[in-house]
Here is the input.
Amino acid sequence: MSQPKPQTFANHTRFDPLYHFFTVPVFAITWIVSIVMLVRHPCFLSAWGVVLATAAMIAVFKLRIYALRVQDRVIRLEERLRLATLLPESRRPGIARLTEDQLIGLRFASDEEVAALVQLALTENLSRADIKKAIKNWRPDYWRV
Here is the structure.
């Protein structure tokens, strides 16, 4: 089996082809078609089709958001545990001051540079993107949802 392409800030985002390029377009097109049908043939059934298609679109997006939120919760926990083992005792109280976005950004930092990035994130209030851009030795996350 081939090795995955090395991950960087430029290529770390992932697309799920079945979700992003099939499911979402199919539901979006269905929603548009249901509106067209309502305009062309106004009746209760056409109106119900719009309601049903709207509910389906909301469900598709909410399911994705729920998965990402669960992933973010796991990342927060994982990073707090990692930082508790990597940071010196005197710097551990800073872990509680890190925001969710900062913890998520730090997950890509190597063990060698994470302590310096934590300090930088706290003193300069870095965003998730700023932290990711500051990483020199990228720690890949191939399990991303």
